[in-house]
Design a protein that fits this description.
Length: about 240
């Protein structure tokens, strides 16, 4: 029986590429979505049509009860051994003009969502003595970014959580890492940067592709990455 992988935010640009990569690597993938359950199901169908194993699941990471119910239902079919915490939102504003709702919602989904999914899945993963927890963060958490104090704070907290959790499970065959993408070609980033800005910001003078992030995640989820844990790995075209 193939190992099961859950990708939160699996219906988005980077998430979908990760789902396809993990399925190609032989994992049975659960594609999570929040409001786009139809997209998650469509992706799962494409993966199945290509010979892979996939299913779809929709719930809101900001809803503690929904997360508890969804993770419990997932575990009825066995442990999740690869967890990719990819779901996230941003709601940008310069800090003096940032509302409490903007702060709280971004922290709730990006940081509390990590807790609500990872914590209930962890003990069953530990019992298998093999696991991979990979959180997709952001260059904003490494370098900072104007207008994204809330987003940078939440993603930066995930870096600290990654390091701490990696110590707790290191002896159990479980690795915990974070991947911090830079500017990646997705619907979320479309139109945000013109070629001149890109050339100034990114030494490679181009945006990354979702598949390039997925390749890194695929490696971290593999047997070959068994000695890599507690790390924040940037994938950003050479941004400092």
């Amino acid at each position: 029986m193939s190992r099961r992988a859950l990708v939160t935010g699996g219906s988005g640009g980077i998430g979908a590429a990760i789902c396809r990569r993990l399925a190609a690597d032989g994992f049975s993938v659960v594609v999570h979505a929040n409001s786009h359950g139809d997209r998650a199901e469509a992706l799962a169908e494409v993966i199945r049509a290509g010979g892979g194993s996939a299913s779809a699941l929709a719930f809101d990471l900001a809803d503690a009860e929904a997360c508890a119910a969804a993770t419990a239902a997932l575990l009825e079919d066995g442990p999740i051994q690869v967890l990719v915490n990819n779901a996230g939102i941003h709601d940008d504003a310069v800090f003096p003009g940032m509302s409490e709702a903007q702060w709280s919602r971004v922290v709730d989904v990006n940081l509390n969502g990590f807790y609500r999914v990872t914590q209930p899945l962890l003990l069953p993963m530990i019992r298998t003595r093999w696991g991979r927890i990979i959180s997709i963060t952001s260059v904003a958490a490494v370098m900072g970014n104007r207008g994204q104090v809330n987003y940078a704070a939440a993603k930066g907290a995930l870096h600290a959580a990654t390091r701490a959790l990696s110590l707790e499970v290191a002896a159990r065959g479980i690795t915990v890492n974070a991947v911090a993408p830079g500017i990646i070609e997705t619907a979320m980033s479309e139109g945000q940067f013109d070629p001149k800005q890109m050339a100034q910001l990114v030494p490679m003078k181009r945006s990354g592709r979702p598949e390039e992030v997925a390749d890194l995640v695929g490696f971290l989820a593999s047997e070959q990455a068994a000695y890599i844990s507690g790390q924040v790995i940037s994938i950003n075209g050479g941004m400092a």
